[in-house]
């Protein structure tokens, strides 16, 4: 048989071309591990919440650590005074995530 890569004659049934090293008998195509993730929705977290789940929901949406979001939010409340109003608005506006909805890959893995 001919190597499709270098067009040199090689032994039938070879797995690799010994002229150029090209893989020949690829066999079954690689399984599709890349399952497309469901579209993210900005929701309040129902699992990882301290007050209303807003910080955890935002953290899951933006792939951040919920603790970091809480710290930044508390700083915004204490120093700017606007964080509390935004929190209440989001608390009311954001839908609560279903308890078994994967908020992020991290929280999904942590549950297993
Ligand atoms: Zn070859």
- By secondary-structure content and strand pairing, the structural class works out as mainly alpha
The helix content is 25-40%
Mean pLDDT: 75
How many β-strands, per DSSP? Answer: 0
Biggest sheet: strands, sense, closure?
A: none
DSSP helical segment count: 4
Helices and strands in order:
Elements: H1 54-61, H2 66-80, H3 83-93, H4 105-111
Helix pairs in contact: 1-2
Bound molecules: zinc ion (ZN).
Please summarize what this structure is.
The chain has about 110 residues and is mainly alpha-helical.
Written account of the structure:
This protein is mainly alpha-helical and 112 residues long. Helix 1 (54-61) packs across helix 2. Helices cover 37% and strands 0% of the residues. It has helices at 54-61, 66-80, 83-93, 105-111. Zinc ion binds at residues 3, 5-6, 8, 17, 19-20, 22. Zinc ion is lined by residues 3, 5-6, 8, 17, 19-20, 22.
Spell out the key features of this protein.
single chain, 112 residues, mainly alpha, binds zinc ion
């Amino acid at each position: 048989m001919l190597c499709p890569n270098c067009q040199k004659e090689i032994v039938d049934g070879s797995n690799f071309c010994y002229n150029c090293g090209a893989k020949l008998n690829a066999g079954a195509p690689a399984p599709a591990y890349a399952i497309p993730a469901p579209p993210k929705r900005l929701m309040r977290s129902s699992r990882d919440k301290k007050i209303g789940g807003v910080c955890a929901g935002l953290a899951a949406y933006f792939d951040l650590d919920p603790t970091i979001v809480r710290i930044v939010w508390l700083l915004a409340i204490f120093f700017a005074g606007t964080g509390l109003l935004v929190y209440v608005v989001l608390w009311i506006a954001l839908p609560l995530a279903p308890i078994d909805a994967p908020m992020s890959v991290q929280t999904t893995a942590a549950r297993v």
